[in-house]
Amino acid sequence: MDIATGLITHRASFRVLARRKVIGLATLGMGVVGLVGTIHGAGRYLKVEYPASVATNELQVAVTYTLWIPEGTPRLRGIIVHQHGAGVPASTAGANAAYDLHWQALARKWDCALLGPSYHVQTDLNPGASKLWSDPRRGSEKTFLTALSELAVKSGQPEVATVPWALWGHSGGGIWSEVMTTLHPDRVAVVWLRSGSAAMVRHKPDIPQPVVPAAACAVPTMCNPGVKEKSRPPWSGTLATFKEYPAQGAPIGFAPDPRTGHEWWWQPLPGHSIFRRLPGDALAGQGQPRANPQAGGHEPRVAGIATG
Questions:
Q1: Which domain holds residue 124?
Q2: Taking Cα atoms as reference points, which of 85, 283, 53 lies closest to residue 169?
Q3: Which pTM does this prediction carry?
């Protein structure tokens, strides 16, 4: 009996088996959901919080920074910053970024810490929303640097305040990541712009476009919008960034995600690819990534990569 005949003959049995598997997977899923609150990666978690300031040149929204340091990492080589996007739901989700096991595996592989900022945005409407932080020049840059200094002291690892950053930002977080790169090109080792760059807000006069120094154009950058948002600013903005930076010799790519729009639900795998392509000494100037079975051996899928 061949495979096709066997499947037809035993269709009823197959359906019963499939039904049992679905029930089993659902039960397992319910168990996993119940455990989510208790699953943490091996390492240390540290937090610092800052209230909203009333000063016009300081951050006018409260923020919490959560730092995860892998176990058995006596000296860090860098910090991976996972910056959430604009809006209340994104800000709420940002509170969990440092607890993401997939991103922790990436950080552990490169002897990096994982930082998840969470801005306490109370409304999706401006003024008073994410514009207060997504432009670092409005105070979030200063608070970010202050947080690193404080976390360096709390962790007992002074290099937290000085090691390079690998910036990943979604939407408003992409704007923040690009502007931070123009302000601190000497600190940024790599930047990933997921559905967001400064170019997408050029039509807004209250958000001045950043001056891009030559040093910022030396930072490896990936522009990564979702294909389903082609008619929206996150697509046109990241595409503009991709087209303009190569004129200044920038190592930049444009990798549209064929599965998504503005959401980033499967982002961890392609988001890791740019780190895999970095030279071993790109972070903190020395060493190679250490073997890490938790990181997995799967090569990320990145769709439509184009380099400038």
A1: 40-79+98-133+142-157
A2: 85
A3: 0.77
The full 3-state SS of the chain, as one line of letters, equals CCHHHHHHHCHHHHHHHHHHHHHHHHHHHHHHHHHHHHCCCCEEEEEEEECCCCCCCCCCCCEEEEEEEECCCCCCCEEEEEECCCCHHHHHHHCCHHHCHHHHHHHHHCCEEEEEEEECCCCCCCCCCCHHHHCHHHCHHHHHHHHHHHHHHHHCCHHHHCCCEEEEEECHHHHHHHHHHHHCCCCEEEEEEECCCHHHHCCCCCCCCCCCCHHHHHCCEEECCEHHHCCCHHHHHHHHHHHHHHHHCCCEEECCECCCCCCCCCCHHHHHHHHHCCCCCCCCCCCCCCCCHHHCCCCCCCCCCEEC
Hunting for tokens 């950080």 — which residue is that?
Answer: 107
Does residue 85 lie within any of the structural domains?
no
Residue with tokens 């967001």: 196
Taking only the tens place, the pLDDT of each residue in 212-247 is 899 999 999 999 999 999 989 999 999 999 998 888
Locus of tokens 């019963």: 16
263 and 184 in a single domain? The answer is yes
pLDDT tens across 156-177, in order?
Answer: 999 999 999 999 999 999 999 9
Q: Who's near 233: CB < 8 A, 6+ residues apart?
A: 200, 201
